[in-house]
């Protein structure tokens, strides 16, 4: 990764960590600027829920703020409370809205609830009638069937002259179900429904697209986009080259390199039989670290469907996982790497610039989002500072 003059040198504990993640904040900032350009006339927000997709909301939040983001989205109020320290004058939207009894955290930290249901709407109206004006956003469901007022309820609300003056939505929001598939007819259907809602609430800003929707045409941009996964470097749209810079390099230390003979078996269940004399590197990463058991070379349900397992990367070589991934360790076949190039103490890249996270995720039948948000607590993290 490129060196930045602002880089803080890695600590000894990072240099010796059994498991470590390097997080390139410059790449994160560059990815946000890319999504900002991709958003055309719309402003680009930044989604930092789930601890900024596992990378750390403090560092990621501050970096995105410094890059220019002023509209942030979190899932739950405590995430907003943390982010507020790093994004002092930004607008922070809370996507799951609010629960009765949690209103103070919204007022104290100036968080904007994204009203998600009729119950939340009724509660919020009572609350602001007492407390006074406080911004909110309104989620309207256009076909996802997760959160949001129904179209009918939203249209009724738009024409309801009796709604209190202290009820002041600043954003209309909806979420696309199939934006990762540009050819899906759902996109156009949801777009049309959202336009109807927007017309009913004239003068209120609108936001429809997460990362994938931002890559659809400019009709989907409205006033504000909500990129998440693209900022963190993983792929948002199926079947096209990912234009984002990788942000995370995850590496596991090799505990030992051992020789094994053809015909011997490897790992739990003796589910993998070696077909040649092999050198095996035992790396300090397992399913407790989010290196999913479905990445196993042999011996788990998904593998028996005929997909090959995942690979790591070391000394210029892709090295396949052999046998089952265990809780704390994974076994890689390093037979094809020159013997001198792999020793105990070296690091295998489990995903990163040389081993795209989405390729690894596909091997487990999942997506980069899940790999990132599953990074466990055992990763020692080192941040490369952004300029
Ligand atoms: C998670 C989420 C986003 C961000 O989605 P990405 O696919 O990560 O860009 C945007 N909007 C809503 C409502 C979300 O739940």
UniProtKB/TrEMBL annotation:
The active site is at residues 49, 268. Substrate binds at residues 146, 327. Keywords: Isomerase, Pyridoxal phosphate. The keyword Isomerase applies. One of its GO terms (molecular function) is pyridoxal phosphate binding. The modification N6-(pyridoxal phosphate)lysine is found at residue 49. GO terms for cellular component: cytosol. Its cofactor is pyridoxal 5'-phosphate. InterPro entries: Ala_racemase (IPR000821), Ala_racemase/Decarboxylase_C (IPR009006), Ala_racemase_C (IPR011079), Ala_racemase_N (IPR001608), Ala_racemase_pyridoxalP-BS (IPR020622), PLP-binding_barrel (IPR029066). It catalyses: L-alanine = D-alanine. Catalyzes the interconversion of L-alanine and D-alanine. May also act on other amino acids. This is Alanine racemase. The lineage of its organism: Bacteria, Pseudomonadati, Pseudomonadota, Alphaproteobacteria, Hyphomicrobiales. The gene is alr.
């Amino acid at each position: 990764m490129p060196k930045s003059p602002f880089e803080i040198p890695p600590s000894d504990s990072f240099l010796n960590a059994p498991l470590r993640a390097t997080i390139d904040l410059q790449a994160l900032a560059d990815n946000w600027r890319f999504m900002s350009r991709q958003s055309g006339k719309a402003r680009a927000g930044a989604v930092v829920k789930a601890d900024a997709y596992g990378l750390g909301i403090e560092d990621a939040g501050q970096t995105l703020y410094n890059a220019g983001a002023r509209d942030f989205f979190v899932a739950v109020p405590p995430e907003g409370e943390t982010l507020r320290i790093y994004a002092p004058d930004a607008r922070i939207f809370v996507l799951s809205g609010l629960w009765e009894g949690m209103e103070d955290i919204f007022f104290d930290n100036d968080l904007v609830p994204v009203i998600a249901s009729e119950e939340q709407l009724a509660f919020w109206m009572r609350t602001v009638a007492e407390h006074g004006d406080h911004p909110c956003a309104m989620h309207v469901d256009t076909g996802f069937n997760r959160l949001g007022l129904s179209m009918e309820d939203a249209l009724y609300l738009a024409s309801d002259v009796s709604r209190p003056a202290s009820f002041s939505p600043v954003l209309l929001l909806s979420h696309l179900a199939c934006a990762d598939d540009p050819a899906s007819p759902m996109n156009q259907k949801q777009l049309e429904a959202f336009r109807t809602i927007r017309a009913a609430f004239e003068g209120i800003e609108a936001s429809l697209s997460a990362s994938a929707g931002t890559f659809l045409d400019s009709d989907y941009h409205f006033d504000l986009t909500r990129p998440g996964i693209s900022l963190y470097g993983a792929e948002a749209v199926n079947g096209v080259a990912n234009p984002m810079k990788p942000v995370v390099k995850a590496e596991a230390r090799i505990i030992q390199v051992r020789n094994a003979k053809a015909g011997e078996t490897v790992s739990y269940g003796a589910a993998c039989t070696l077909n040649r004399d092999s050198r095996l590197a035992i790396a300090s990463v397992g399913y407790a670290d989010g290196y999913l058991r479905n990445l196993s070379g042999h011996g788990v349900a998904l593998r028996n469907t005929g997909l090959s397992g995942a690979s790591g990367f070391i000394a210029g070589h892709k090295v396949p996982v052999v046998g089952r991934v265990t809780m704390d360790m994974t076994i890689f076949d390093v037979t094809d790497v020159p013997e001198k190039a792999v020793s105990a103490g070296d690091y295998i890249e489990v995903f990163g610039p040389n081993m795209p996270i989405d390729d690894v995720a596909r091997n487990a039948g999942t997506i980069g989002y899940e790999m990132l948000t599953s990074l466990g607590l055992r990763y020692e993290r080192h941040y490369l500072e952004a300029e």
